Amino acid sequence: MPEAQRTRRDLPNLVIDATTPVPPPRWALLERRLIDVQGEAIAEFHARYFDERGFLKCVPRWSGDDGPDDALENVLNWTVLHALGADDSILGRYKHALEGHFQQYTEARTTDVAIGRDGMYYQDFHACFDWFHHGEAWSPVLMQGLSDPHDRMLVSRMRRWTGWYAGENAHVPNYDKAHRVIRSFFNGSRGPMLRPATALDWAGDPIEVEGRFDGALHGETSYDEMLEHFRDYTDVIGDNHVNLGATTLGVSAYALTGESRWREWVIEYLDAWVDRAERNGGLIPSSVGTDGTVESGYGWYGGVYGWGFSVMQIPWQGKVAHRAYHTRTPFSLANGLLLGGGLGYVTLFRRMMDIVNGNARTRDGRVEYPHMYGRLDRLERIERGESLAGLPAHGPEGWYEFRSRPFAPSALAVWYWTHDRSALDLLEEMPRWVRFLDGNDPTFAEDALAADLDAVRRKVEGFRADAKSPDTTMSDDMNHNNPATTGALIQLVTGGLPTGRDVHALHCRLRYFDPERRRAGLPLDVAALVEAFSEDSVTVSLVNVSPIEARTVILQGGAYNEHRLDHVAVAELNGGAPSEAVATGGAPFAVRLSPGAGTRLVISMARYANEPTFAFPWI
Predict the structure, then answer these.
(1) Residue 279: pLDDT over 80
(2) Span 489-537, pLDDT tens digits
(3) What is the predicted pLDDT for the residue at 7?
């Protein structure tokens, strides 16, 4: 075992020397190629779709179909990709696009939609929309602190934005601190909407569609069809479970500043929802009154994206969509876990899965599980394509939308936090990543990295073939060609849950820093593979694929230093028993890799033992 030693002040106290050369594994070469090539692809994408101001080359609109959130999704994953070790140019291009985005949508104004006439954005934030869409927009911004924790504009914005949801600004009264509610499903920099929403509020101003655009996101071929799409998206007054996504602002603000008020608000608001679930038989309600009561005017199951939100998704084609949206809720609850509040926040959601699945039925010898709950007479009207106008105040309620698979939104994430294997039993099949971590799928890493490399190729091919002019381009047209591809990298490099557009923090076992370039991410030529983890340990292989340059990498527990690293033992890359473990001092440590060297580390850790921070681990 290499001895611990003190080094210069930008390195931790513990430095491990890895000197044994190894043939570079295929996974390491694929990983480095995937990290490195995306900088080139993003440079070309950025040049194709953003002008010199950073404005997206599209028709800027206020809409649930192609609004500002879709515009900002074109830089989705850029910040987390940089934090993994990709080229510095990515962060610069992201900032160029971000500042352009704020200016473009502040200058963009609506005519028919009243709340957007003074600018779709105000104070660098959507004037008034919902956290389903806010979350999609802010996902890359919430990751910026991983690479850029000292950016003054980022810190200022996070304080300002979070303050609107923590009840600190009387002019933007989204939050009622007395009742612990965000007062409307529609909220933003102009405050909450305290009236029913209209189809116009959702669809935005009238616009030519047919013959101009390839097709709106949801298949509309005319503006009338856009309005019809959103005809039943009305129930927005009061709090909604989707609003829990706002707590990720608080996590980011706290990790940037260390100011306790942001942590206190997140815990306060999450605890309010925990209390409501307990009063509602263990089910997290989807609609809460402005006075904090579970029974709102829409029923506990009501509200947009609520338990009973069945709508004519494509009314002109007679297609019904069941859009109860629970996928992000456990990630919002996990913000409490990240802030030191304990596993109770996510085990609450695990218990809710069992409660829902406990209402299963058997039909034709097969077990079927409900996924929706609400007014059955409302559902009947929707299925007949009828208006909800005149629906009685009360009617029959019950579970519906029975499927062959159990109710298990984000079950993989729940397992990740709790290590409760029963959550995985709810999935239709065991994810390959889990089988790999169990030692039962040895080719997964190479397969996943190769597949993501091919995805980058296809995305570049896609935007190179795009010949549309800006005035025939919607803001979401190019989303699928955004070349930033991070899913496999997050899983394999950090042992984490991919972030994407689901407005959640980065949950991972390890993060890396480059002390030579004094930045976040793997150093040049270094590849990492998290091969296994448990409740209190993680095993990672490190390889320096450069045959001529030594590299040094710092390892930290979790994206926010939330996991305390306690001991580390070293083993040969290709097998062999680990050495006697050495104490890390409860802090990040460094590994110095000789040219072509590789090593495997078995690290013991205490999860969620530290306060989360974006601060870099320089001494």
Answers:
(1) yes
(2) 999 999 999 999 999 999 999 999 999 999 999 999 999 999 999 999 9
(3) 41
Task: Report the pLDDT averaged over residues 554-560.
Answer: 98
Q: Are 294 and 276 in contact (CB under 8 A)?
A: yes
Which residues are paired to 532 by β-bridges? 539
In the chain the first and final C-alpha atoms are separated, in Å, by: 24
Please say whether the dihedral angle defined by the alpha carbons of residues 296, 297, 299 and 301, taken in this order, is positive or negative: negative
Q: How far, in Å, are 181, 304, 305 from residue 236 at the CA level? A: 13, 7, 10
Residue pointed to by tokens 């199951």: 301
Q: Which 8-state DSSP code applies to residue 491? A: I
**E-assigned strands of 301-379?**
310-314, 319-322, 361-363, 366-375
DSSP-derived secondary structure for 571-612 = EBTTB------EE--SS-EEEEEPTTBEEEEEEEEETT-S--
Q: Which string of DSSP letters, residue by residue, matches 469-492?
A: -GGG--TTTTGGG-----HHHIII
Rg from Cα positions in the chain: 25
Distance CA 324, CA 287 (A): 12
Gap between the Cα atoms of 310 and 326, Å rounded: 14
Taking 50 as the threshold, does the pLDDT of residue 150 lie above it?
Answer: yes
Residue 217 to residue 413: CA distance in whole angstroms = 28
Judge whether 126 and 133 are in contact, CB under 8 Å. yes
Q: Which residue has the tokens 């996991």?
A: 563
CA-wise closest residue to 388 among 323, 309, 319, 325: 309
Compute the distance between CA of residue 406 and CA of residue 426 in angstroms, rounded to an integer.
6
Specify the pTM. Answer: 0.96
CB-side neighbour CA atoms (13 Å) of 79: 27
> What is d(CA 247, CA 175) in angstroms, rounded to the nearest whole number?
12
CA distances from 362 to 308, 355, 404, 427, 494 (A): 22, 17, 10, 19, 42
Nearest to 602 by CA among 580, 619, 574: 580
The alpha carbon of 46 is separated from its chain's Cα centroid by a whole number of angstroms, namely: 22
| Helix residue ranges per DSSP H, 465-513 | 487-489
Nearest of 310, 324, 301 to residue 382 by alpha carbon: 310
Residue pLDDT, tens place only, 395-407? 999 999 999 999 9
